[in-house]
Amino acid sequence: MDLVWVAGGLVLLVLAGDALVRGAVNLALRLGIPALVVGLTVVAFGTSAPELLVSVQAVLKDQADIALGNVVGSNIANVLLVLGVPALIATIHSADLGLGRSYVTMLAATALFIAVSLFGPITVWHGLILLAGLALMLLDNYRSSMAHRAALAGNPGAEAEEVEGADPTMPGWKIAVFLVAGLIGLPLGADLLVDGASNIARSMGISEVVIGLTLVAVGTSLPELATSVIAAFKRQAEVAMGNVIGSNVFNLLGIIGVTSLVGPLPVPEVMLNRDLWVMALAALVLLPFIFGRFSLTRGVGVAFLLAYAGYTAALVLL
Transmembrane stretches, by residue range (predicted)? Predict the structure, then answer.
């Protein structure tokens, strides 16, 4: 039954997260909020809602190890799994995407999170520092987007900005249904996933840290993986790289920042000695693909997936 709870929780999180994004995006546009602002805030936060709800629910149930494992494990999975799988389908020409600035932001967020963890437990004050970093990142993104929009303003052939989930014809009652479904489904799905995962950990004698780093982390990364695979089949695999970088920054600064406001997050010693550095190494692995002339080919994808399989096996067996 615990596996059923986990599977049901994941399905609910995916469906409710999508419903919340669609409802919130169309409500924001209906209220006259610019598409640019909606894309930078509503969509970004909405797509991270499943991870956020899982982490908050874990802390409320005194299972902070699952919350931290979820974020650290998701960031590792995002690089090695979410980029590894689409690389098998289509080459990702990451050096041509101009993601250097965003990548440096991800490295800075990773360094800040590790520093905060070393001085843990992560408390409200640490969380406020992380959230301040997120606010600075959003401001920087907003300014960059405005500069990009100004540069295109004189080009009549430029395409209008599209926001994920936007539907100008969506009636008000449908917006309300999406919002209610998202707001009810997310906490319910998170509750099922955390309960099921923690019960599996206890019954198998596996620590909650490992369950958070593996089962929960991969589960909450499934939407990103699905999006990346679909993009690869459409020969738009480059979309995956931007999604991974943005997701990793939000995980570290936004999700941990908000979760720490709910309750303190003691950092397990094993995570300080091992998993934080694996996460940092996974982030640094992308350096030659962002700033060099290297592309994520099929061979690189295989290497990423083998590395992730080896890391997961080590967690479970050692």
Answer: 33-54, 66-92, 112-139, 175-194, 209-233, 245-264, 276-292, 299-317
